[in-house]
Structures are given as structure tokens and as C-alpha cells.
Amino acid sequence: MIPTEWTKNYYSIGEVAKIFDLNTSALRFWEKEFPELNPKKNLRGVRKYTPENMEVLRKIYHLIKERGFTIKGARNKYKDNPSETVNTEQVVRRLITLKDSIESLKKQLDSIK
Fold it and tell me: What is the pLDDT along the chain (113 residues), one digit of tens a residue?
């Protein structure tokens, strides 16, 4: 599950790929397609994703992987109405957290029987 808060100042592309269960090539491709996603690069070109980059990536991930948008559709949706994208993504995250809590409570209740 994707974290709701970012604890580090910078994440490597490998760490980001693991967190979002993506290939590093997909991340590089998304950088080209979404100008909002622009991780810092050092002189050698090594990417360092900030918590702000991670939030942008979370929204893009939500549109493409969870809602099924095409790259073009996600780009248009993100560009045209970013506040709706943020609100929808936050609602989905809250619902997933609530579902996990309910399932945990159910397991506890089942173990008592």
C-alpha cells in the first residue's frame, strides 16, 4: 500500500518504483508525459524525488493505475482539474484505510467466537 505521508527528504528512483510497484522505465516515461513530475537530478543525472514529487506521482498513479485513465486522459484530467483529482484521490485513500480497519475488526471478532 502506498504511504499517506513521506518521511524522507529524498527518494531514489528505485525506492519510488518499489513503493508504487512500477518499473523505473515507467517512472521515466511519466516524467516526460507529466511536466508536473520533475524530480531533482544531480550532475550525473541521478533522480531524487522530493515529498512534493511523491504527491504528484501519487495523483498520477491514482488516475492511471487505480481509475484506468490513459496517459493522455490522465494528463488532461490532471491539467484541467487538479483539485478534483486531489479530492478524489484523498477520498479513495480514506475509504481504503476505513476498509482495512473494518477487516481488521472483523478478524478480531471472528477470533473471539
Answer: 676 678 889 999 999 999 999 999 999 999 999 998 999 998 998 999 999 999 899 889 988 998 899 999 998 888 877 666 656 666 777 777 888 889 998 888 888 86
Q: What is the CATH number of domain 11-112?
A: 1.10.1660.10
SS3 assignment, position 40 = strand
Q: Are 13 and 27 in contact (CB under 8 A)?
A: yes
Cβ-based burial of 85 (10 A; exposed 0-12, middle 13-18, buried ≥19)? buried
CA–CA gap between residue 54 and residue 12 (Å, rounded): 11
Indicate the burial class of 112 (C-beta count within 10 angstroms; 0-12, 13-18, 19 or more).
Answer: exposed
For residues 36 and 61, what is the distance between their CA atoms, to the nearest angstrom? Answer: 13
CA distance 46 to 13: 8
